[in-house]
Each structure stands twice: as C-alpha cells, then as structure tokens.
Predict the 3D structure of the following.
Amino acid sequence: MKDLQKVEKMIFGLIKNYSITKYAYLCFFLLFLNCAGRSEFDVDILDIPVPKSWQITFPDNKDFVGEWWLSFQDSALTNYLSKYKVNSPTVRTLLQNQKLAKYNASISSSSIFPQLNFSARLDTNTQNLSGFGFATVLLGDSDDSGDDDNTNQSSNNSQDVISFGNTSAGINLNLQWEIDIWGRLINARKAAYKNYNSMLHDLAYLRFSTEVRATQLYFKGVESAAQLELSKNSYNSLVEIRDLVKDRYERGLRPSLDYRLAETSVAISIVSMENNKNQLKSINRELEILIGEYPKGVLVENTLIPTLLPQIKEELPASLIQRRPDIQSLLLQVESKNYNVAESKRNLLPGIFFNGNIGTSAQSLEDLLNKDYGIWNIGLNATAPIFNGKKLRSLVKVQEAAFEVSKQNLIKGVLNAFSEVEQQLELGESLNLQVAALETALKQSEDAYNLSKERYDSGVTSLESVLNSQRQFNDIKSQHIRIKRLIVDNRLSLILALGGNSPQNKI
C-alpha cells in the first residue's frame, strides 16, 4: 500500500506541476506503463497417473489433423468428404461459431485500449420574452395617457411578442482510458484469447469428429450395399434350386415337400433382399443430407470394404495424444482460468483513469475551425475499493476454484484419452481374431454347401439339408462382411482417439 501511495503522489505531482505542453510526455509515460510486458502465469505441472510407457507431456498448438482418409484409397470417399467439407450445413455452422468466438474474444479484450469518440452538434433556439413578463416592461403600459389613440397603440404594442434566437455549433473528441498499471486488463485480455483458442480447438475437434462419423456412415453404406449384393446372390441361388426342384416335382421325381421348402426359401430371400435395399437407401439419404443435397438415396454403390487401412504402431508414444484438439482445449482452459485469477486479484488494487476532451464551440459554422474558439480538458482519476462486503475477495476465491476445476478437467480428459486409445487397440485385436475365424468358417461352409448340393443331386441327402447349408453359408458370409466393416470402423475410431493422421499414414 505504501508503494501505491508513492505512485499516486508521483502522478498527481506531475499533473499539478507540469504545464499543458508537457501532458504529451505524461501520456507517453502512461502508455508505456500500460503496454509494458507482464509476467506469464505458467500452469502448474500436473501429476497425472498414466502408464510410464506413455511419457505424457502437454502439447503445443500444432496442426493435429492430416488427410487420414487418403489411406483408404477410395476415390468415392475422397470425393464425398470434399463435398462434406464445403457444403455440409454442420461444417458451415461450425465455421460461423468460430467467427462468433473470435468476435466475442475481441469484445472481451477491447477494454485495454483507449476509447476515442467523436461528436458534433448544431443547436438553434428561439425564446419568447413575453413568457417571462418582460414585454410590458420593455414596451411600457400607457394606461395613464388621456389620448385614446395613444392608449390603443400602447395596448397593441404591449401585446406584441418579443423573442430572440441563438445558434451554436461544436465538435468534440473524447478520450477515456484506464491505465493498466497493475496488469488487470492485460490478464483479462490474455484470458479472453486463451478461451478463444480453447473454443477453436473444441470446434476443430467437433469438425474432425463429424468427418470421422461421416466416414463411418459411408462405410456402413458400403457394408449395406455388400449385404444387398449377397442377398441378391442368395435369391438367385434359391431360385435356381427352386426351378430344379419344381421340374423334378412335376415329373414325379421329388415330393411336394421339397417344392414347398424351395418356394418358402425364395419368398424369405425376397424379404431379406428388400430389407437390405431399404437400409441402403436410408443410409444414402442420410449421407446426402450431411453434404447438403436433396436426398435421392443413390449415393453409395461401392460394395468393396477396404482392407488397406492406416497402419498403427504397436507401441504408441505419448506425442500421439498431444495432437488431440480436445486436450489442447482443456489445457488452454487451465491457462485462461489462471489469468482470470490474476485479473480478479488486481481488482483489489486502485484503478487509474485518463480522460480528455478537445474540440471547438462557436455560434457559427464558420468559426468551428478557428483555434480561438477551441476548448479542451484533460485529467486523471483514481478510484480504490474500500468496502464492498468482501465481494472482490469472494470473486478471487471463485476464480481460484474455477482454476482448480479446470485442472481436474484436464487430468480427466488426458486419462479418458489414454483409455479410449487402449480400448480401441484391444477391440482391434479382437476383431482381427474374429475375422480370421470367420474366414476359416466361410471356406468350410462354402465347401459344405457345394457338397450338400452334390449329395442332393445324387439322392443321398434331403433338400432341407441343402437349404440349411446354404443358409449357414450366407449367414457366415454376412457376418464376415459386417466384421470387415467393424474393423474399418474401429480404425476410424482409433484415428479419432489419436487426434488425426498424417498424409503419409504415419500414426
């Protein structure tokens, strides 16, 4: 407090002793104080209990998302994502939210700069003296005159309205500026832009996640197209069997039971085929809506699920997590809250305000630019909190609590990030085992189906056995298609958990 008093005495001494020509030097001195460098408020090193193999370090602001979709070598997917990035209503909304965040940050940090306003005025008025009773005094009352003509004339004159007019004009520049000696405003500015950058990372991660989800939906459409193709092939196979059985039944070589089982299988296959067709159309419509096109339901026609996927190293360094925009956002929130703490503490200190006016005031527009009609004033104001019911100190405690909450959110976010990566890696291993087992089952079920047809033609087995083996073969093939798509889905989820991929497929 003693240092504060010394600063106040110095400033007011300058104001008292300096002539007006030296106010410019004072302004430069205050500007220097206001723009002087402030000490950074470093975030505490957080003790996060993560596996030692990760060697966690906090990220810098870097590009975190590469062209990961190129790894699939699917031109239709690349074309779709190109449209998505440009035409998607979701992406356009995110871009507008990004602009809003930028402008809000600019508004929040604008108080550090001087506020300069210009005003101009032109006034004219007319005043009636009779309203104040001055007309009778100025003109006189002629009641004592004996001349009737004079009396009438005086009476008329006393009723005349006397008025006068006035015109004035002026221009003015007004300057208001809080001198940020203690760094309150600069800390508020830093907090605002840290919060802005945090929002940018949140929006980037949201955009990134929507692109991944759109890609997952695309491959779900590819799976649906493959399932539709499988159901069509199954239908054609069953129609072939039915026609063969029908021919033999009509010749009396097969019982009616075989013919009825064959017809039933064909009918059921039609239902399955139509369900797959409707599912594909629904997914296509959803994909088209995502890119802002009228849904026609004819977007995805590819039936090949990719087997060439982005390669993932067995041992993942912690730097992969550092690319996650959501972790970046949480870190920036910690830094923002720390600056808010510093700002709230400086609210306890006195505030110094610089204000000034310069302009002209005259009764004619011609004189506005005449320096003889110039007016000005300049001054400094100092305000200090004395008693406010502990409001300011409570606000400090609030900001300190918010800072601690942001640190815990960061710790939680980092732990969740590691957990997501590990879960996706474990799921990937499980899916690889499943697809290998299904490939074995698929080969055996296909051989069993072909063998059953041969035995049925030889009259060794029943048609029911053929149909069962055919149904089992199709079920296994359908599962195989689904697991292959889930492997792609898992790889996309892993890319999301890692925060992106480089164009060189190095994760």
